[in-house]
Amino acid sequence: MMNSRIYIMKYISIIILFFASLLHLQAQELNARVTVNSERIQTTNKNVFTSLEQALSQYINGSKWSSTTFSSNERIDCTFSLTILEQPSETAFKAELFVQSRRPVYNSSYTTTMLNFRDTKFEFEYMENATIETQQNTFGMQQNSLNSNLEAVIAFYANLILALDFDSFSPTGGSLFYRQAQTIATMAQSNSGWGGWSSFDDNRNRGSIINAFLDASLKGYRDLWYTYHRKGLDEMAANPDRARTTILNALPVLKELRQVRNSEIILQMFADSKLDEIVSIGGKATQEEKKELYDLLRSLYPTMSNQLDPLKK
Prior knowledge:
Elements: H1 2-25, E1 30-37, H2 47-62, E2 76-86, E3 92-104, E4 111-125, H3 149-169, H4 175-189, H5 206-213, H6 219-232, H7 240-250, H8 253-257, H9 263-282, H10 287-300, H11 305-308
Parallel strand pairs: 1-2
Antiparallel strand pairs: 2-3, 3-4
Helix pairs in contact: 3-4, 3-6, 4-5, 6-7
């Protein structure tokens, strides 16, 4: 009898370890660092901001956003930094959200910035100790309702991060996530109390962003995104000259896309995440290539000439 009990206990332990290892192998997609800065708010109760930070971290890192299996070391490193600007009431907040994501470059210790965006029109409600939940199916697809603007905004950027990452590994590989972000935007736009979603407000809001990425006229940008990362940066360790040439030869498509109606936000987001990196890559090119690159970037980003100055050396 004692031996059978020992056997059963060992069997149960093996089963538990098996499922624990399975969960470890099927880790969530995002590895987010979340911060909430409330220095501008004069209040004696700062606990609500600690609670908000914890709830956001759990929501972003604990949600399963896709059907893709990620191992722990494949999770996408990202940052969600929330700065509280105003607190009109006990549960209402106006804030700025800075979102950044990064991707490792193949066969190197270098990571490249994929998203580097500041959302300045973020208003939401949150009650201390509340959890943030979403109406999701198994693979993170949004259903027909959203509980709050806080949930909607975070889910939108989570899907945008995944879209950019998947697009960098296969041509238009992030389409599913762009469509999910579009679904979120469409549902959010139907709620008149949630700001920052209408594409008619300005060209930097969430509606404009997702419309641009899904605009068929801008497919060339997504092709460039794949070439830049998979055929350029990922080849840099094996053959830096060929990789650099691939990147420099791909960039002129940006000038062609400038004429497309929705391209302004795309071009600015590209500069915010890639301009310094491109200048660094171009710094090792020939003088003729440097001049061509400088002229191209100067025509696209005339107000950012200081960042381009190294190319003139």
